[in-house]
Specification:
Elements (H helix, E strand, L loop, with lengths): L5 E4 L14 H12 L5 E3 L4 E8 L2 E8 L6 H12 L6 E7 L7 E5 L7 H9 L7 E6 L9 H5 L5 H23 L2 H8 L8
Parallel strand pairs: 1-4, 1-5, 5-7
Antiparallel strand pairs: 2-3, 3-4, 6-7
Helix pairs in contact: 1-5, 2-3, 5-6
Pfam families: Pept_tRNA_hydro
InterPro entries: Pept_tRNA_hydro, Pept_tRNA_hydro_CS, Pept_tRNA_hydro_sf
Main location: cytoplasm
């Protein structure tokens, strides 16, 4: 399995959205950069906030696009082009309605599932869907008509703490995931549920 060379955290730019559920992917990248004492810096050529860390002996590019969610593809394509990263060497972290807060799942390839960030990335990569995803559970409001307000709303304190616990577990499994040992990473992550979820 190819090793992962870049981790992309999806979200919307600006203070207004920082704490909203739609930014769960960006929260992971921010936490990882902070834990590695490597600040994310604005990088115009990648249309986002960028840092490079070493994880499990591998260089890993971190990027939070600073375009709106439905325009995430431009930043991802720019990073891939610059560093010659193939789609199957990407891990894209995003919020997932179909999973409860406090859980997260790895997935390789597949469709966009109606997620506007994924849809734009697939399109920007020339319809190549082979990139890996990290689906971060945020739960579902129960009705389709409430989804937009829900993803752009803030999680409750208990939900946020469950999401943060899941992100902590993701960080623990990332060395295996980026080294290409997906079975081991999935085994651990997929059996985790945060206590309060």
């Amino acid at each position: 399995m190819p090793q992962v060379k870049a981790l992309i955290g999806l979200g919307n730019p600006g203070d207004k959205y920082t704490e909203t559920r739609h930014n769960a992917g960006a929260w992971l990248v921010e936490a990882l950069a902070k834990d590695h004492h490597t600040p994310l810096r604005a990088e115009r050529k990648f249309l986002g906030h960028y840092a490079k860390i070493v994880l499990a002996g591998h260089e890993l590019h971190l990027l939070n696009p600073q375009t709106y969610m439905n325009r995430s593809g431009g930043a991802v394509a720019a990073l891939c082009q610059y560093f010659k990263i193939a789609p199957d060497e990407l891990l894209v972290a995003h919020d997932e309605l179909d999973i409860a807060p406090g859980t997260a799942r790895y997935k390789s390839g597949g469709g966009h599932g109606g997620h506007n960030g994924l849809r734009d990335i697939v399109s920007a990569l020339g319809n190549d869907k082979s990139f890996h995803r990290l689906r971060i559970g945020i739960g579902h409001p129960g009705e389709a008509g409430q989804v937009v307000n829900y993803v752009l709303g803030r999680p409750s304190k208990a939900e946020r703490s469950a999401i943060d616990a899941a992100l902590g577990e993701v960080e623990a499994t990332l060395p295996d995931a980026i080294s290409g040992d997906w079975a081991r990473a999935m085994n651990r992550l997929h059996s985790f549920t945060a206590p309060s979820a």
